[in-house]
Each structure stands twice: as structure tokens, then as C-alpha cells.
Amino acid sequence: MGRGRKLIWLGAIAPVAAILLVVAAWAIDTGVAGGEVVRNVELAGSDIGGRNASELLEHIESLDAEMRSRPVHIVTPERTYETTAGEIGLSIDARRTARLALDVGRSDPLPVRPLPGSPASSTPGGSRCATTSTPRPPGPRCERSRANP
Questions:
Q1: Which pLDDT score is estimated for 145?
Q2: What's the distance, Cα to Cα, between the start and end of the chain in Å?
Q3: Running DSSP on this structure, what letter comes out for residue 65?
Q4: Rounded CA separation 95/70 (Å)
Q5: Radius of gyration (Cα) for the chain, nearest Å?
Q6: Could you give the count of Cα atoms lying within 13 Å of 38 in the half-sphere of its Cβ?
């Protein structure tokens, strides 16, 4: 085999070997993150990638506490009520949201997982969040702010 042929073989094998090394490094990185949220996952504007289940649950519970104190304005034809999300029974289902966050990117086909724009990195509207609602009629905790004409 001449020197020219060796260079051709080397030129053909080198890119394939480089791709295999990148895929192997990615597979090892993904395997190490088995019980964690995959990289580049956001929830409510916070990066949650790399968090384990207990850290994730703690973070979601703090988001729930923050969300429950958010003001809510309920406008009806007769009047407007002002209350908070917690007072009307809105909350985040922390355990379900954590399960959803841990599942993001794990069902994508293997060849596209590390690519930007893969289904995991392009979920419309960001990561999914499970909310719960316990319907409560406006009562003494909802303050009537103004009557509508």
C-alpha cells in the first residue's frame, strides 16, 4: 500500500473517529446524569438542569409558595374581586412537575438528543408545569374592589 493510499484511509477514518469520540463523550455524560434533570432545561425562567430529584422538588415547592402569593384579579359583569392565587386554590403540583422535568429530553431519539433545536430544547412555551386548582367561590377573603357598571 502506497503512501497516498494511507493518507486517503487516514483522511476517511479520522472524521469518523472524531464523531465516535464526541458521541461516546455525550453518552457518558448523559449516563452520569441518570437521576438528574438533563442539561439546558428551564422551569419558570430558572435553569434546573443537573438538579437531582430532591433539589428539584425543593425548587418547585419554593416556586409554588411564590406563585400562591401572586395577586389575582377576577372580573365579572357585576364586580371585580382581588385575591391571591393561593386563596382561590391555585397551586403547582410539585411531584408531577418534577416528574415532567425529569422526563424532558429522555424520550428524544438518541441521535438528536445532543443537538440544539431537538424536541427537548424546543418545547413550546418552555418546560411543562402541572398545576392544580381547588375551586372556591369568592368569599370573605376576596375583597370587592369596584363594581362594574
A1: 45
A2: 94
A3: H
A4: 21
A5: 25
A6: 22
